[in-house]
Amino acid sequence: MRPGLASLASLAALSAAVLIAAAPARSEPGLPEGVRGIDLIEGWRQADGTHVAALEVRLAPGWHTYWRVPGEAGIPPRLDWSRSRNLASVRYEWPRPRVFDFAGLRTIGYADTLVLPVILTPERPGEPIDIDLDLLLGVCADICVPAEARLGANLAPDAPASGRPEIEAARADRPRSAAEAGVTSVTCRLVPGAAGMDLDTTVSFAAPPGADQVAVLEPGGPGLRIGPAESRTEGRAVHAKARIKGRGGAGPVLDRGALRLTLLDGSRAVDIRGCAAPR
């Protein structure tokens, strides 16, 4: 299966984007204001045949870029690996993001430098992976602009490891799992809202969580859209509610096993998979 994420064609009209010519691992000058560089850290081949690499985005002071869910405003990251050779799949290990206030809207992302680890699975494990990556990122300060780049590299299975400290530090700064964070139960249900259906979710912890939790709900499949969530903390529980819609005018059908919920506060993130029906 070829690992093409969303195509960049729908954003081709964004004239502020700058296309970077393919180069071994590193981007070339010409990126928009706020972006100091976009590089591919080549990483290393693992014993199981997968290859650990990372994207590095270096930003100027006062600028930030976006997480996989950008929040109420911003450009979601788009990465297209489809021209790469000997690449069966790509898995992202997003480090813990921050919450920003942008013109009164809540956005989620990274300031200064983002190192995004990627786990690359080759079709033929003993052979090089030939990377040809198109990417588009939104970057913001007082204004938001798209930054577009094309990166290339040949990742040989026997090449010396590169960038291990930076990649391992980013992997260590990951969201905690539900078990690591002391989650005792997660329930969710559909309830009538002011203008349609809402998804009402409750996460209970063994100890009281922080007061200022930001909840992000992802449907885990193509058939649903979930809007920004409102959340509140009561004792040892976080309650989150968000508008939910089926695509194409269809009513929402909730797959509880596919739901993904991330809770963010100033010190940690919690990545929760799935929910149960309330008793």
List keywords for this structure.
Immunoglobulin-like; mainly beta; 6-stranded antiparallel β-sheet; disordered N terminus; 3% helix; 49% strand; 279 residues; 5-stranded antiparallel β-sheet
Short description:
The protein is mainly beta and about 280 residues long. Helix content is about 5%, strand content about 50%. It has one helix spanning about 165-170, and strands at about 35-45, 50-60, 65-70, 80, 90, 100, 105-110, 115-120, 130-140, 145-155, 175, 185-195, 195-205, 215-220, 225, 230-235, 235-245, 260-265, 270-275.
Tell me about this structure.
There is one protein chain. 3% of the residues lie in helices and 49% in strands. With 279 residues, the protein is mainly beta. It folds into 2 domains: 9-172, Immunoglobulin-like (Sandwich), CATH 2.60.40; 176-273, Immunoglobulin-like, CATH 2.60.40. The longest helix has 9 residues, at 164-172. The relative contact order is 0.16.
